[in-house]
Amino acid sequence: MELNQHESEGGRNVRICEQRAVDGSSRLNASRCGRSGADVSATERPGGGEGTHSEQFEYPQHEAASEGGRVLTDISYLGGTGHQAMVANRSFPSTKALLAAIPEACYQRSLARSLAYAGMSVLLTLLFGLLGYRYLWDLSKSLHKDSVSGALWTRMLVCVLWSLYAAVTGTVATGAWVAAHECGHGAFCDNAWLQNLIGFMLHSSLLVPYFSWQRSHAVHHARTNHLDEGETHVPHTAYSVSGQMNLRFFRWLGDDAFGALNVFMHLLLGWPAYLVYGATGGPVRGMTNHFIPLSFGQGELQSTKETLAKSVSLFPGWRWKLKVLLSDLGVLAMLALLYYWARHDGVQRVLVVYGMPYLVTNMWLVLYTWLQHTDVDIPHYDSQHWSWNKGALLTVDRPYPKIVDFLHHHIGTLKTAFPDHYLYDPTPIHRALWRVGANCFAVRQIGDLWVYSVANSDEEMHERAFDVTLQKAKKMF
User: Fold this and answer.
1) What is the DSSP-derived secondary structure letter of residue 450?
2) CB distance 337 to 43 below 8 Å
3) Quick check: 60 and 40 in contact, CB under 8 A?
4) What are phi and psi of 434, to 5 degrees?
5) What angle, 0 to 180 degrees and rounded to 10, lies between the N-to-C axes of helices 152-184 and 137-146?
6) Pure H helices in 39-106
7) Which residue pairs from 256-263 have beta carbons closer than 8 angstroms and sit at least 24 positions apart in sequence?
């Protein structure tokens, strides 16, 4: 029986209480799991922005990692998770222990409750969309008409109004994304056909290939923080060509410029880039495409020269390939509706009413998943040292505004049975985002961990390896 550690693009990571089996059994909707019954543990920590992070971690911060129980400090600097993820020779609970901690209530799925959450998100999205379509559009036209030759202040006011509209509507629509996410995990209700239909409709309306994403997301959970076989937000190594290029680019631009560009590229282009060519996907699978269920050449392992003796296709077998094509039909149907709308009302109206909130929803999706699995003191493991338990327990919980938690259905950590493995970073989101964007782009090996570092202790060796690789590439072409 395979296990998935559940986290949400539209929400925070859901800890032990959110695990489910792939054989069909599942757990209660994410927002109810921690409040449903028996305590998992006598120890509780606040998560998702509720309360303060009062527990202190006493791990030494300035000692080498050569002895068990010591913190690894050969990294750029430590983040805000308490540093326990960087402890050398750290032990992890067994799968049996994890399963034993799950309350029975977490396996109960309420269709009525799930529909209530999904319905709230859909209705709010339609409401704000209607306000933009009818009233904000008319107001914008009126302001332009009444202004003297399109005064600068009028244009600025219109831009501000549409930006606020996009921020609010896109944030609200992310709640519908979360509901579809639960469908993809089999957590929405007991009727698999019904929940897949609901998830398919919700995701298609947001131009997401539902079944394609369902498969890649399952791989993501099955290989979380795996350096070679992970899926989404898999870092380059400092010893690879891509990693060396990132390091050189970082040194050339400087911290601030590189960080700003990295955050911009992730939030604006990250999601479509992942769907189209598998950006930040598992290197062992090579380039992937969520709309074309074909393999575009086998990738390479980053941490070892060994090859996998198993299929590395993201969509193995004809059934998954057929589901990818079915997902395409849903996205094409939505694109057809948008085309018809543009023919009727004009492209500009479609772009501001639908397109701008769509970008904001994508930003939330990338923001959540990026910060859940990435920070300067969150390691990755190679094939020799990785295990499912390690990857699942390296997910970071972060504080988001209460209104965001409400709109995204409070998917987050409420209780934990393993407090020593619960990673909560109280750093404000904007600061954590900047820290990740400016520092997390290449990892290097320290012991059995692969950690982010902008430093390069073996720079000469890396430079030579980079130049040799370039020379080989020139000879090939």
Assistant:
1) E
2) no
3) no
4) -65, -40
5) 170
6) 95-100
7) 256/438, 258/438, 258/441, 259/434, 259/437, 259/438, 259/439, 260/437, 262/437, 262/438, 262/441, 263/433, 263/434, 263/437
Rounded Cα–Cα distance for residues 163 and 435 (Å): 25
Rg (CA), the chain: 23
Distance separating alpha carbons of residues 107 and 100, to the nearest angstrom: 13
Nearest to 104 by CA among 5, 25, 182, 45: 25
Cβ count within 10 A of residue 419: 15
Report pTM.
0.79
Name residues whose C-beta falls within 8 Å of residue 314's C-beta, 6 or more positions apart in sequence: 215, 216, 219, 231, 278, 281, 285, 288, 295
17 is in which domain, residue-wise?
3-476
pLDDT tens track for 74-112: 433 456 665 667 766 678 888 888 888 888 888 889 999
Cα–Cα distance, 53 to 46 (Å, whole number): 6
pLDDT top residue among 301 and 307:
301
The number of domains in the chain is: 1
Q: Are 114 and 188 in contact (CB under 8 A)?
A: yes
